[in-house]
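Below is one such protein, fold included:
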Amino acid sequence: MATLTPAGVDFVDDAPLTVETVLTLRQPPQRVWDVLADNDSWPNWFTSCKSARTTSEPGVGVGATRSMHVDLFKVDERFIVWDEPRKWAFTIVEANMPIADTVVEVASLEAHDGGTRLTYTFAGALKPWLRPLTPVFRWRFERLFRKSLAGLQPYLDSTDT
């Protein structure tokens, strides 16, 4: 695994590659938060996720870590923001495919029309030799997040009690 340069949430503001996906969900923010914070559930709804596991104790909060296998990528992540039920963010610390120097992902939740507006932001800085391909990577990540996050509403519906 290649080591990436960790960053804070401010990296999103200046990242050369950002992809933002916005969903409006029927459930309230706390319900959506509970699913996002449950690493074990990700393969059930994030359609590109092959596996997810907590790798720290405690498994929640700033400093918590997890391992994810999403699409072709295997990554180790460390949470840098944990503001339940409004916002979490992580930075990728290691990845099997060294295409980026830095990656930060942020999930922001806000109450909206009795449900939740989820804004999921991917921010990255590609390796210098890949920067000419930024438009291709943007297209690929837009597609990946749009498709994968689309599984969240059906999963929420199927697990509501």
Q: What stands out?
A: Strands lie at 2-3, 17-25, 49-54, 65-70, 73-83, 87-95, 100-112, 115-126.
